[in-house]
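RECORD TYPE: protein structure
NAME: Ion-translocating oxidoreductase complex subunit D
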Amino acid sequence: MGFLKVSSPHTHGPMSTARVMRLVLLATIPGLFSLTWFFGFGTLVNVLWASITALAFEALALKVRKRPIAFYLNDYSALVTAFLLGISLPPGSPFWLIMIGTGFAILICKQLYGGMGYNPFNPAMAAYVMLLISFPVQMTTWLAPKGSFAGDLLGPIDALRYCFGFGKDAIDAVTMATPLDILKQNNSLLIADLWEESPQFGQFAGIGWEWASIGFLLGGMYLLYRRVFTWHGPISMLASLTIMSAIFYDGGSSASGGSPLFHLFSGATMFGAFFIVTDPVTSAVSNRGRVIYGALIGVLIYIIRAWGNYPDAVAFSVLLMNFAAPFIDHYTQPRTYGHKLKDQQGGKS
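PREDICTED:
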């Protein structure tokens, strides 16, 4: 009997790759709306320009590899990478920074390994880390959120001008450090005093950041409802981050690392939990493996935030666990149907 030599997955149905990617894009809307409301149109410009450049780089790579361009562009994977990277970058990032990031994500982190399904690292997070290490000034310059200063947010036209470098001096925009960065640099004020003196802080996290996190949480709940991924990775990540921040929270001294609520709704925590950790290609495969994978990411996020050099550590933590995912898979393989566990480990049948 001859067997068909085809690569996985072998299942075809309504939940195709393109449909999954469209659902992920749809789920980013609440978070994108919150970022736009509080930080102006800079993030939308990021996403728009990242999408254009990502599609262009994807088409170029497919042409060089002699693959059907329209067929692979229609799976929306390049657009998802562009959205994730555009959301991660500071609002109104310069056009060349976005172009370098999307080029690195698509050409180096994805196509160089063979395309979607073969990349060992999350392309958006790998590109983000590369940009953060290479261009730290541009990657840490965030516009002040609505309600924290007396200036105006970037409108759609000003955001385009800001991105492409036309007339920046005429744009009334103020930059501020992020709440995570302020807390990390603090060594003299109690948390309560820091909250009163810094205009970036909101109810339990940063102004704008907490609502953006709620938006990405809602998008993640929608994806869970549609069964795009399982709960194991994101919930275990959020649980381990909560436990770590609760253990080391001292009530609010000047040396405090922040409360569990602050860590859950600051930075890229919710965005990372539901849109990055759930990447099926670079995460662990089994449900037990996903629990371990997500939990270790949560632990690493707190360790780097509290004692490392970077205030937000989602990208670094994810990439470190991308390295470890094959190792986790090796020791969390589910029992083969019809065999006992000891049979798989070399015991007698």
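COMMENT: DSSP finds 18 helices and two strands in the chain.
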